[in-house]
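Tokens for chain A. Residues wanted.
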């Protein structure tokens, strides 16, 4: 990846509400449909703001760590102290631990219950109907998509 020009870096940080080092530094410009900040760059196309902040602070993503994770769970946050590189497993694990799986909060106990129901042969629809969680998220959790076959324990 080519480095960003000083003009691009200055333009980027002008769109971030930089505050106290422990506070979230929220993106002030355009967002995508998922609520993440975005910035259009001539040489790099559309970039998510938190990814750019992580690249500027920490350099390119290490091999196999192509996700930028928020310690604060704030999609607009660009504070490098709140961002770290991870992989799909790290992302899914944090989602479960923090109760962000699907459209409502999921506890580790519910996560284990869902996996147990699936092990007993229940369909994704049956599990969705019983738990109220989105069937697509249940399927991803049960198949451990992006997790490299690793489990949550």
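Reply:
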């Amino acid at each position: 990846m080519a480095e960003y020009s000083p003009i691009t870096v200055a333009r980027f940080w002008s769109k971030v509400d930089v505050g106290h080092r422990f506070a979230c530094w929220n993106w002030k410009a355009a967002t995508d449909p998922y609520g993440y900040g975005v910035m259009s760059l001539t040489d790099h196309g559309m970039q998510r703001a938190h990814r750019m902040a992580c690249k500027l602070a920490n350099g390119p993503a290490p091999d196999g760590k192509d996700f930028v994770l928020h310690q604060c769970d704030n999609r607009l946050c660009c504070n490098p102290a709140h961002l770290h590189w991870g992989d799909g497993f790290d992302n899914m694990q944090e989602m479960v631990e923090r109760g962000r799986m699907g459209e409502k909060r999921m506890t580790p106990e519910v996560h284990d219950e869902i996996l147990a129901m699936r092990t007993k042969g229940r369909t994704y629809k049956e599990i969705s109907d019983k738990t109220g969680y989105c069937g697509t998220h249940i399927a991803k959790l049960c198949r451990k998509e992006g997790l490299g076959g690793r489990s949550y324990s």
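The first helix runs from residue 6 to 14. The radius of gyration is 18 Å.
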